[in-house]
Structures are given as structure tokens and as C-alpha cells.
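lol ok so funny story. i was supposed to be doing the assay writeup but got distracted and ended up predicting the structure for this chain instead. priorities right. anyway since i did it might as well share w the group, maybe its usefull for someone
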Amino acid sequence: MKRKTMLIFLFIALGLGAFVVYGVSNFGKTKIDLTREYEVTSYITQDMIDNMQDCSVDLCLEEAYTPEGLGEDADDIVIASVISLDDSDPETGLFGATTGKLLINQTLQGDLQQGQVVEYIKNGGVMNMAEWEDTQPVNANLKRAYLRQQAGVDIDLDNTYINIVISDDIEIEEGYTYLIYLKENNDKYEIIGLDMGLRKLNVNYANRLGVQNYSIDTLQVMNNKTGEFESLQNYINTYINNSEE
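and the output, tada:
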């Protein structure tokens, strides 16, 4: 009888231990609905596009970005779809920044969970000209005004928009899926590495996005230097798996 009682207590203890281990391993993890879909959105309107001026900014870097260097600097490397372009802020960084939301499909490096939605921040973007010039040096604004006057261009700064793209970078687009290098920046994830850290995949545009379990060996990633698509599996084997060894 005593032995039977001891066995019962043993099974109870083992059960509680397994429960505690499960609870600790899942502590802090939010349950994610992998069936949820998101409608893609953008703050950029047709009126903004019709009244837009492009601005390419040259950025002199001490060292060129490389996949190896980015892999060491990134907190997460993911396959993610862009749910939205939410806003732009001309006061963030040297060139302003765009914010929006990403849907994580797969994590190649890091701790982000499949189905997690995170807010990103990316240098550049489409901004109101008047608001952007408020952040710029007075002399630079005077020079732009002088050049516009010489060219006979008269614009309403409050109703004109500037699209700032750093040279060697690409624009982010809602509804598309990318290979992305991310670094935590306060409550957001910064897309780092310019065109090396944001590479479009051969996945069609979608106006509604849900979590996809992509087969890596069928995906191709764009080489932003050549404009051609290359094997994502080869890229991962060369630059991501090797960097973790």
C-alpha cells in the first residue's frame, strides 16, 4: 500500500515537473494566430505621387556593407512580408525615416516568431517638402529656393512631397516579401544595410497577407546590384549558415 502511494506521488511530481519546464520554456511567448490575414496599406496617396519630387542622397561609408558584416550586426534575419507603410518622419535620422509593419514568415537567424507582426523603421521615404525642409540647414534651403527660382520653378512646399532614397538602397513596398536584416531599435526593428539588408524575393504581390511556409529551395532573392534573382538556398548556405558556425 505504501509503495502504491509512493508511486502515485512520484507520477504527480513528474507531471508537475514537466508542467513547470513547459511553463518556463514558453514564458514570455505570446500565442500567435497563424491563420490571421492582414490587408496591406500605405500612407502614400495618389495625390502625393502626383506632387512628388525624387531625391537621391549619396552616403559615404567608411566600409561597404557585406552579408557577413550584416549577419554579425543583425539581431534577426527573416523572410517577411510588408503589411504596411504607416508614416514617415523627417526628424528621424539624417534623411528621415519610414515606419510600418512586417509579418514574419520564417526566421533564419534570431528569435522572432513565425506569424509575429513587428514595426520596422527604414531610412528615407516620402515626406512633405515643407516639413522636411524644416529639419534642414537654412543655407541648404536657401540654395534650393535659389535654384528653383533660376529654373523658373514655383512650387507650393506644403503640397509638394519629396521621395528620399539613399544611393545604393531600394524602396520598400507594401504587399511584397523580402529577405530582411533587422536590428532592434527601441520598440521597433531597424532595417539595416541599405540594399544589402532588404532584398525582394520572387513572391507575387498580395493585397492580403497571411503566414506562408515557404520552401526555401524554391525561393530566389534579388541581387540589387545586378537586378537578377539568385538562389536563396545558396545565399543562406554561403552567408547565414556559415556565419553561425
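The chain has one domain: 38-212. DSSP finds six helices and 14 strands in the chain.
back to the writeup now i swear
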